[in-house]
């Protein structure tokens, strides 16, 4: 098993955190893991992305030109990364942040209305966990139990009381994701 993932959106959407939690979850399962963030001064408001590789075998390079799965959270990221999904791969996008949806027909495309769900939950910080839940529904590369352990590793202890809310957000994302082609 080898899964090469790009997560891209605006800084502040939890892109890097989502990647880190996914990477920690892979470590908990004994997988080989690579986590490579890409951001600059745009970390808060500009574009940010992270590449995560989970594998049962050693990873030769963290630098990729193509991905098995792309999670795209804004229109500029869609323009930049839609063509980098391998034929037969998966693209997940947030319906709120992308008015012009993906057009490729050679990949599986899923929509998740994560921003709307986070607003409904009255917690904008749940956005990335809703998206992560959608990913895990269609690509169960790590278990929910290990995601919760990954949350414990990545959140400061003073925020551990938020873990049940994050778990609810993940479950919500699993319910919301819809295949559009």
List key phrases describing it.
181 residues, alpha/beta, seven-stranded mixed sheet, 6 helices, 27% strand
Description:
By secondary structure, the chain is α/β, with parallel strands linked by helices. The protein contains 6 helices and 7 strands. The chain has helices spanning 15-28, 75-81, 114-120, 127-138, 144-154, 163-176, and strands at residues 2-10, 32-38, 47-55, 67-72, 85-94, 108-112, 178-179. The protein has a 7-stranded mixed sheet, with helices on both faces. Helix 2 (75-81) links the parallel strand 4 and strand 5 (85-94). Helix 1 (15-28) packs across helix 5 and helix 4 packs across helix 6. It starts with a strand and ends with a strand. The mean pLDDT is 92.
Summarize the structure.
This protein is of the alpha/beta class and 181 residues long. It is built from six helices and seven strands. Helix 3 packs across helix 4.
Question: What's the helix and strand layout?
Answer:
Blueprint: E1 2-10, H1 15-28, E2 32-38, E3 47-55, E4 67-72, H2 75-81, E5 85-94, E6 108-112, H3 114-120, H4 127-138, H5 144-154, H6 163-176, E7 178-179
Helix pairs in contact: 1-5, 3-4, 4-6
Number of strands: 7
Determine the oligomeric state from the structure.
Answer: single chain
Distance between the termini: 24 Å
* Poorly predicted parts: none
Compute the average pLDDT.
92
Helix content: 25-40%
Strand order of the largest sheet: 2-3-1-4-5-6-7
Look at the helices and sheets and give the structural class.
alpha/beta
Radius of gyration: 15 Å
Main sheet properties: 7 strands, mixed
Q: How many individual helices?
A: 6
Q: What is the beta-strand fraction?
A: 25-35%
Query: Could you state the order of secondary-structure elements as H and E?
Result: EHEEEHEEHHHHE
What characteristic shape results from the CA principal axes? Answer: globular
């Amino acid at each position: 098993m080898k899964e090469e993932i790009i997560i891209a959106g605006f800084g502040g959407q939890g892109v890097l955190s989502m990647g880190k939690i996914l990477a920690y979850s892979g470590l908990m399962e004994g997988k080989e893991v690579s986590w490579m963030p890409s951001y600059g001064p745009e970390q808060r408001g500009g574009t940010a992305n992270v590449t995560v590789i989970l594998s049962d075998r050693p990873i030769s390079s963290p630098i990729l030109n193509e991905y098995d799965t792309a999670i795209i959270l804004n229109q500029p990221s869609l323009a930049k990364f839609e063509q980098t999904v391998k034929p037969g791969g998966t693209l997940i996008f947030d319906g709120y942040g992308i008015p012009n949806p993906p057009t490729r027909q050679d990949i599986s495309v899923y929509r998740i209305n994560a921003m709307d769900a986070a607003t409904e939950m009255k917690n904008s910080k749940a956005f990335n966990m809703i998206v992560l839940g959608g990913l895990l529904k269609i690509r169960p590369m790590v278990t929910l139990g290990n995601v919760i352990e990954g949350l414990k590793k990545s959140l400061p202890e003073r925020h551990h009381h938020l873990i049940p809310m994050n778990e609810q957000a993940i479950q919500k994302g699993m319910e919301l994701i819809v295949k559009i082609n």
